[in-house]
Amino acid sequence: MEQIFPTAEHTAAALRAGEVTSADLTDEAIARIEREDKAVNAVCVPDFDRARAAARRADRARAQGEDGPLLGVPVTVKESYNIVGMPTTWGMPLHRDYMPAEDAVQVSRLKAAGAVVLGKTNVPLGLQDIQSFNEIHGTTSNPWDHGRTPGGSSGGSAAALACGFGALSIGSDLAGSLRTPAHFCGIYTHKPTLGLAAARGMVPPLTPALPAEPDLAVVGPMARSARDLALLLDVMAGPDPLTLGVAHEVTLPPARHERLCDFRVLVLDEHPFIPTGSAVRAGVRRVADALVEAGARVERHSALLPDLAEAAVLYTQLLFSGSVARFPVESYEVLRTRAAGLSADDRSLDAARLRGMVFSHRDWIEANGRRELHRHGWRRFFAEFDAVVCPVTPTPAFPHDHNPDPRERRIDIDGVEYPYFDQLVWAGVATMPGLPATAVPAGRSPAGLPVGVQLIGPVFEDRTPLRLAELLEHEIGGFRAPR
């Protein structure tokens, strides 16, 4: 029989009712990690002694009448977040001993909410992969099939949640790094609207933890239920107290609707750059059928939808422009030479990646201008629709592939191979214009692997896809742990 782990909401309620103590919950979580994580390798930097001490403090605080949204709830944190007293390496061997001087903003918010941090979860080298392995901490495996990846770069957090290692986790998303692991591991996550949650302290080793606003990238919640996502997002949301937080507070608007029958949804399962595998199509269809049966207005096409092909090229160029911005000059010149050799007729995503890597500032400004046109197109779209349902990636979790040259890797879609990074186009649908997107489980493949979909909503209306996710959880079922 599959295990059913309690949600953070139920755990918090049990703590408030005095049915359990944080010390007991923390000991149970630690025992589970020590017993089961050798096969998965999700929690790469345990912090059990401090977790037990934090749990005891939480129990004392509750005994004195204190409370908090997460008081006493055990959680994990992605390795890339700075935590005082723990190394932050981003999987880079050169920085295996780097110790930050202060907590990341989101770690501070977790602690202020009363959460008990069990440890850090594994990531890929530099957070730049769709898998989670590195020389320092090794390989994290998918809990459903240890021969497959849990995704990346928040793969350790997704695997930890699927295994019951804590009730919540926090991750980040630039190229689907929250949504892909959720889809691969059968959990829930939410990529917030760009700029909704402060990211200070989620930075590479030795990088100053400044209140900068990164392009495309966000930090966000991961959980085993849609309601838990909303609970954790309320803790995470808000501007950096050093900048916009001086003058602003965040008040998100309520969800547009409370019943499935009132939602207006566009369902997509085809992308102009890459096919969607049969298992993922089935997951999208399952969600679409549930919406239709509930009486929602479901469409398959809309002239209002911004052009997906142009969006994919823009996203690819902006993404890879940022990824190589700090390359040595010699490496940059090699890329420029390769890009100059491209045919003007080459409109492949491989070409878009290479051109993006050598963008001039003028090129970036021009691409950003086209992005603003797409953002306005989405505003018009969401005047007529409330959400988009679409894939996260074209396939369920794929086998581990540690080829050191990602350009040589391939993704198998129903027996046909495609360039490895082409699978990122679905993540870019929400990322490029900065839209919120909630990833939800939508069944399993014939091989028993989890399949998820993403629910994309209007900018800064994050509660709309979160509410839709909650309603769908009741209609199609939610998280189930691997045997």
Automatic annotation (TrEMBL):
Entry GO MF terms: amidase activity
| EC identifiers of the protein | 3.5.1.4
* Keyword Hydrolase recorded: yes
Q: Does the record's keyword annotation contain Zinc? A: no
Keywords for the protein's UniProt record, in alphabetical order: Hydrolase
- InterPro entries listed in its UniProt record: Amidase_CS (IPR020556), Amidase_dom (IPR023631), AS_sf (IPR036928), FAAH2 (IPR052739)
Which ranges carry the Amidase domain? 24-464
The cross-references to NCBIfam families, in alphabetical order and at most eight, read: PRK06170.1
Enzyme class, UniProt record, top EC level: hydrolase
By what name is this protein known? Answer: Amidase
One Gene Ontology cellular component:
endomembrane system
Segments traversing the membrane: none
- Signal peptide limits: none
